[in-house]
From TrEMBL, chain A:
This is Peptide ABC transporter permease. PANTHER family: D,D-DIPEPTIDE TRANSPORT SYSTEM PERMEASE PROTEIN DDPC-RELATED, OLIGOPEPTIDE TRANSPORT SYSTEM PERMEASE PROTEIN APPC. It comes from Salinicola rhizosphaerae. Residues 101-290 form the ABC transmembrane type-1 domain. Belongs to the binding-protein-dependent transport system permease family. The keyword Zinc does not apply. The lineage of its organism: Bacteria, Pseudomonadati, Pseudomonadota, Gammaproteobacteria, Oceanospirillales. It is found in: Cell membrane. It is a multi-pass membrane protein.
Amino acid sequence: MSQVISSKGSSAAAPGTFRYQLKSFWSDFSASRGALFGLIFIAFVLLVALLAPWVAPHDPAMQDRAALLVPPVWHAEGSWNYILGTDAVGRDILSRLIFGARYSLSISAMVVVISMCGGIFLGLLAGYFRGWVETVITRVMDVVLAFPSLLLALGLVAILSPGLTSAMIAIAMVQLPYFVRLTRAAVIGEKNREYVTASRLAGAGHMRLMFNTLLPNCMAPLIVQATLSFSTAILDIAALGFLGMGVQPPTPEWGAMLANAREFMTSAYWAVTFPGLVILLTVLMINLMGDGLRDALDPKMKRS
Amino acid sequence: MLRFLLVKLAQLVPTFIGVTIVAFAFIRLLPGDPILLMAGERGISAERYAQLQSQFGFDRPLIVQYWDFLSGLFRGDLGNSLVTHSPVIHEFMSRFPATMELSIFALAFAVIIGLPAGVIAAIRRGKTLDHTIVGISLTGYSMPIFWWGLLLIMLFSGTLGWTPVSGRMSFIYFIQPVTGFMTIDSLIAGDWGAFLSALHHLILPAIVLGTIPLAVIARQTRSSMLEVLGEDYVRTARAKGLSSYRVIMVHTLRNALISVITVIGLQVGLLLAGAILTETIFSWPGIGKWMIDAISRRDYPSVQGGLVLIAFIVMIVNLLVDVAYGVVNPRIRH
């Protein structure tokens, strides 16, 4: 992991300016068609989520008693009024998917922010101070990693009572160790390099060394991990929703929509198919984007 | 080697203690009075309240409670389920073989397909076949497996009617449990019909549970094959005029397998997490479904016991993976 950072640092230092860096990053990133496609798709989903009240054809909570389990438009019984059909209580599936994107994306983004900030802070402490601080932090993270992620999240949700906030905290908690480990490894690799020593001799304090000197040079693997965490968070949020332990009905969350549609599986395939398809596509596109980011930030870095 | 093993074991001790503390804290972290919470909306008699309080030892100092919990753990005593009133350890043990059988079949499916797929993709690097395999494995890796399970049920059980929807075996068979593995028990009983029925019930859940490990194994095999194919000794082997089959099978694959084995071992935690979803979809009577039921019934002693036992299993398997890695790659030991 340490070489990853050093090679990035040296290539960035050569021609200098930030604009040059950004340009070379973009040319590496856009070299992968998959990554570019992923980026466009995610940008589209984000836009749709932001504009949900204007682009959604119906209110996601509106129940049309005259249109229960209406099939999608390409069926003989389908209608343009409900393009992807309706669910068992007559709600428009397309509108619910559009509003659901808001929940999935914003909760997952929060998860990444929480676990990344916490992980960077703990990882910096562990890698910078070493000694007992490092031992305590890594041991605690080992404990978190000893539990299968979904199980730990379920346990935490059981303590916090099911709901949006507890699902978010639980999944952030489960993601935390990965950021701690990456930051710690990167800091240890960078700590003894000349620019850090120079900065220390110039009189920089602990905080300045950690956050201003070391952290910017450790960001590459963390950015890649952030995309990976983002896609994992979407899957985990949906899994918790599916198990009835996450976002509670009638909130139009993708996983919860699947759980509601389950009993009508044989009679109304559309109610099951589309929410899952949206989850799969979103996660797939983020992973494609993550692969591109990884290749652009450093070709040596591997995701297993 | 012995020293390596002892060092690894010693490193597990703090994690072990940490896991027990987490499990211990679990019931005590529940907001509000844990006993009233477990009783739920029905309420609870004063008598039963006192009984439960002494059962959990909530009236004693925290450190004494922890010590009791820990010593109980070593005796295999994890308390009793609030729903069935039988010991948590028995509840766990009676369901564990079902999860284990499912996980073994899932992992076998993942390895049997994932390993050759990764090798083929590496050999055909940059060709259409490589792109197809990489694309499929990325899709598998991104799969919400609870949806994947529902789709497969809709297609194979619903439309085609080929596979059963739930359970481990058709109810027309009764097999005396010996190992708890339906496939093995039915073979011991010599009942071919039951054996086939058990396999029949295993197919879909094993595919669903094995999908993500399959994708991970295929990706890892491909990338470590590519890495080894670039090594000097592979070039030497080719230059010596060895057949390309021999170069790939003997010189490349064997070395590439070192990192693949580690990745396969690391799938166990993932399998146990995936088992929660898979077992829920297929009503598979294993520990995943048991944990979900325990959480929704507020059977907190069962949740606590399940947490600690599953963490132990993951820790032990990770230790075994480390040791196996040390055996195949002697450099690690020093």
